[in-house]
Structure formats: structure tokens, C-alpha cells
Design a protein that fits this description.
Layout (H helix, E strand, L loop, with lengths): L3 E4 L9 H17 L2 E4 L13 H12 L22 H13 L3 E4 L3 H14 L14 H8 L5 E4 L6 E6 L3 E6 L7 E3 L7 H11 L4 E5 L6 H11 L5 E5 L2 E2 L15 H7 L3 H9 L14 H7 L10 E2 L2 H14 L2 H8 L11 H8 L8 H9 L7 H7 L4 H14 L14 H15 L3 H13 L7 H23 L1
Parallel strand pairs: 1-2, 8-9, 10-11
Antiparallel strand pairs: 3-4, 4-7, 5-6
Helix pairs in contact: 6-7, 9-11, 12-13, 15-18, 16-17, 16-18, 16-19, 17-19, 18-19
The structure holds glutamic acid.
Length: 480
């Protein structure tokens, strides 16, 4: 049987990193096995519908590089792939369950159910349906259904155990006494998640269901549905929860959860994929940096861990830095373009100067801004460096050297100011003043770049050339 997996999100408006992890594990498994990766939209909860949700989702998956073989946009033989377009299929299947006695009509009003829940709450027992309508004669129920609103429930056996083998969690067992008579079809004619999910996984010939651990409690209901239909269930793998650093469930309050926000922050798609892949899975070598092809080779469901996976933003930034360094210079230049909102002409030399220094692409514009500012804006550290005791002396001396020098090495091959000449000139000034390190360099950096840290000085002075360096030093002296 060929490997067919699916990512089955409810379109809530954005792709959550937890959703991306589920999508990724499914995609990696499909690619590794030469199988198919299906996208199915589970939009049966009409109250949660959001305009544009599908478009956002497709865009996020495309950005992450997770190409879809079958889905609402990709098409495929076993569609439609949007559940709200499959209502007739669910009605047919639920009718079969009614006919076979695996499901029944329930006429209880929302008010009655609310009272029941209230009573159960007061008694301190778990809230569940009391099976009030379960024994209505089917003929009577059908007759009533002609002019009364009803829902359809699964007739869960009153006792017994359901046991199954999860690829991640191994043997899992549930006592049926604790399982509610699950609603399968709601009053508005839409199926619940449980019915639609099982029917679709079967009809779409899904071989492996890989999804978050929060769906594990649904397993007895799903397995009962497979039994009721007489279908062979797929294999299941439930992925560990994603946790904040304090081990609470990953939430918006403690950080970013929307994939598109990571894109805005300047995380490379390959880096996010690399990081997310490690949220619950490690290969034998404990390697940290993976290209996507390496992940396809190395991934295995058997090595997915049971315990919760901590979402460590610092690690994400570190991994992103590593991926940034792996880009070629032209690739890096292209990757940073969208983060500039001004029309700056970032040269290859400028890009090279920050290539190995950043861990977020969105930090680049700030780091390069001083090349384009006119006049340069000093930050606090720069202002402090410029008021140091020797600052004016050092800068005056440097300006004099720049003004006077007839040294032929002053000009570099492609610029009228050689970085090497500049460095040795500053060193000589340092010797005269008995200064080196930050005491010598900070005032100079501050004057020319407006910051005391940043790209290397050679790149800076060669990019600016003689006139610009002189102009900035003069301005710094005037400002001091
Ligand atoms: N629609 C469910 C979700 O939003 C799918 C769960 C599953 O994969 O079965 O995550």
C-alpha cells in the first residue's frame, strides 16, 4: 500500500507553528517514502470561519517549501479536499451508521443538555450525555425527524476496552465507560470533526495519520467509527506537545506562534524548518543543522519523542544565523532585500560586512543604515565615545593625516582610500597617544559610522572613500 499522509488544518486565519510541525512531519514522511502529501481543509465548524484563511495557509506552506500533492489548489482524484464541499458524502455515511444501529438520532434540546451539564457539574462528575434518546425505536425517531430538529450520535458500547498501537506512544488503551456518545452530525447538517475526519481519511486512502497529541483522546471514538464502518484503520502517530520554556503549553502570550511572523522577523524558511523538525525529533548523531534534503533522508517516525518539546527562541535564532552563513553572498543579498523599506543600494561589500554577524535578516537594515544616513545619526554609545578625553585629539590627528598624506599607498586598487593604509595609520596614531583597542577605535567608528560596533572598518572606509570619511570626522569634531 502506498504511503499517503495528510495535513488537515481547520482554517483559523493563520498557520500556527504547531500546525507547521504537523505539516512538516507529514511532508518529510511522504517525501522519504515516495508517498503523497495531501492537504485537507477541515472547515466543518462554520462559526470559526475566517475570510482569507485558506489563502494565508497556502502561502505559509509555500513559503516553508512544503509542496502539496493533492489539495484544494493542487487538485487530485479523491477530492474535493474541503470538508464543507463534502456534506453529501457525510450524510450518506451517517445514514449507513443509523441503518446499522451504530448511531442514533437525538432530539434533546440545547436547554436540556445545558441542565444536564449543570447537574453533573454540581455532582462533581464528568459531563457527558445521559443517552436519553438512545433507545428510541428507530422507526419513531425517523418519523419525528421529519419535523423536529435532531442531531446524530455515535452509540458507544457501554463497556469494554479499545487498545491500539501508536507509532510514537506505543500501546495505548481506553476504557469505553468513559467515552461519551459523540455527536456525529450537528443540527445545522454539518458533521463534527470526528465523523468527517474518519470518513475522509478512509476515502482519501490515508495510510498514516500523523497529528498532535491533543487528538489522542479522540482515538476511541475514531476507532469505534472505523469498526462500525467495517474499515481497516490507518496507522497513527501522535506528536508531542510544544511547550514554552517554563513547560506550559506553547501560547501567544509567551512569544510568536504565527509562521508569517517568523517570516517578518527575518527567519529563513530553511532555518524554521530545521528548527521545527527538532521539536520532537532528533537523529542518532544529535546533529543540529540540517538542510531540507538531509531531513528527508534522516527523518523517522520511530525517533519521535513522547515527552513535550520545548520551543527555544534563542536556539531558533542561532540556527537561523547558521543558515544565513550558508547562503552565498548573492543569495544573502537577495534574502535581505524585502527587509529594506527604502531604496538603498546595498553593495556586495556592505552585505558581506554583515553576512556573518546577523541571526535575523530584519536586523540588517539597522546595521547598514549608517552607510546611507546623511548626516549620520550617532547612537548613545557613539555619543559617549565622542566625548571621551582623547576623542577630539585622535580625530584631529586622523583628519590631518587624511588631509595631508601624499603616501601613494593611501589609495586602494578600487577606491581612493585603502582600508589597509587607514588601519596602519590609525595604529600609528594609537602609538602616539598610547592607546589601543576600544579607546582608540570607538571614537573613530563613532565618527564615521555613528555606532561603536558594526561591520569591519576596512569595508566601511573603502565603501565611503576619502571625502566622505573626512566629512564625517569634521562633523564629529564640530559636534563634540
Ligand atoms: N482539523 C484538525 C486540526 O485542526 C485535524 C486533526 C487531525 O489531524 O486529525 O488540527
Amino acid at each position: 500500500m502506498s504511503t499517503r499522509v495528510r495535513f488537515a488544518p481547520s482554517p483559523t486565519g493563520f498557520l500556527h507553528v504547531g500546525g507547521l510541525r504537523t505539516a512538516l512531519y507529514n511532508w518529510l514522511f511522504a517525501r522519504q517514502q515516495g508517498g503523497s502529501f495531501i492537504l485537507r481543509i477541515e472547515d466543518t465548524d462554520q462559526s470559526r470561519r475566517k475570510e482569507g484563511a485558506l489563502e494565508n495557509l497556502l502561502e505559509a506552506l509555500e513559503w516553508a517549501g512544503l509542496d502539496v500533492d493533492e489539495g484544494p489548489q493542487a487538485g487530485g482524484k479523491l477530492g474535493p479536499y474541503v470538508q464543507s464541499e463534502r456534506l453529501e458524502i457525510y450524510h450518506r455515511h451517517v445514514q449507513q451508521l443509523l441503518d446499522d444501529g451504530h448511531a442514533y438520532r437525538c432530539f434533546c434540546t440545547p436547554e436540556r443538555l445545558e441542565q444536564l451539564r449543570d447537574r453533573q457539574r454540581k455532582m462533581g462528575v464528568a459531563s457527558r450525555y445521559d443517552r436519553h434518546c438512545r433507545n428510541l425505536p428507530p422507526g419513531d425517531a425517523e418519523a419525528r425527524a421529519a419535523d423536529e430538529t435532531s442531531i446524530i450520535r455515535l452509540a458507544v458500547p457501554e463497556s469494554g476496552r479499545i487498545v491500539f498501537e501508536d507509532i510514537v506512544r506505543r500501546k495505548v488503551a481506553f476504557d469505553l465507560e468513559t467515552v461519551d456518545d459523540q455527536v456525529l452530525l450537528k443540527g445545522d447538517g454539518f458533521p463534527t470533526y470526528h465523523l468527517a475526519n474518519v470518513v475522509d481519511d478512509h476515502l482519501m486512502q490515508v495510510s498514516h495519520v500523523i497529528r498532535g497529541e491533543e487528538w489522542l483522546p479522540s482515538m476511541p471514538k475514531h476507532l469505534l467509527l472505523y469498526q462500525a464502518f467495517g474499515w481497516e484503520p490507518p496507522r497513527f502517530a501522535h506528536l508531542p506537545l510544544l511547550l514554552n520554556k517554563d513547560r506550559s503549553k506553547l501560547s501567544k502570550r509567551q512569544g510568536t506562534v504565527a509562521v508569517e511572523e517568523y517570516r517578518t522577523q527575518g527567519i529563513l524558511p530553511g532555518a524554521l524548518i530545521n528548527f521545527i523538525a527538532l521539536m520532537g525529533w532528533h537523529d542518532q548523531s544529535d546533529q543540529d543543522i540540517f538542510g531540507v534534503e538531509e531531513l528527508v533522508q534522516a527523518f523517522s517516525l520511530e525517533r519521535v519523542q513522547k515527552s513535550g518539546a520545548i520551543f527555544d527562541t534563542e536556539k531558533l535564532h542561532w540556527i537561523n544565523g547558521q543558515h544565513i552563513r550558508r547562503l552565498s553572498l548573492p543569495e544573502f543579498r537577495e534574502a535581505i532585500q524585502p527587509y529594506f523599506d527604502t531604496q538603498w543600494d546595498v553593495t556586495e561589500a556592505m552585505a558581506a560586512a554583515v553576512h556573518t554577524k546577523v541571526s535575523l535578516l530584519s536586523d540588517v537594515p539597522d546595521l547598514l543604515a549608517f552607510f546611507f544616513e546623511d548626516p549620520v545619526v550617532y547612537d548613545d554609545d557613539a555619543r559617549e565615545a565622542l566625548t571621551g578625553a582623547e576623542a577630539a585629539g585622535i580625530l584631529s590627528m586622523l583628519l590631518a593625516k587624511l588631509d595631508e598624506s601624499t603616501d601613494p599607498s593611501r589609495a586602494g586598487p578600487s577606491t581612493d582610500l585603502s582600508g589597509e593604509w587607514f588601519m596602519s595609520t590609525v595604529k600609528a596614531i594609537g602609538e602616539d597617544f598610547g592607546l589601543k583597542g576600544r579607546e582608540l577605535w570607538h571614537p573613530i567608528r563613532a565618527a564615521i559610522a555613528g555606532r561603536v560596533v558594526g561591520p569591519d572598518m576596512i569595508t566601511i572606509v573603502e565603501t565611503f572613500g576619502l571625502e566622505k570619511c573626512r566629512e564625517r570626522i569634521r562633523a564629529a569634531l564640530a559636534a563634540a
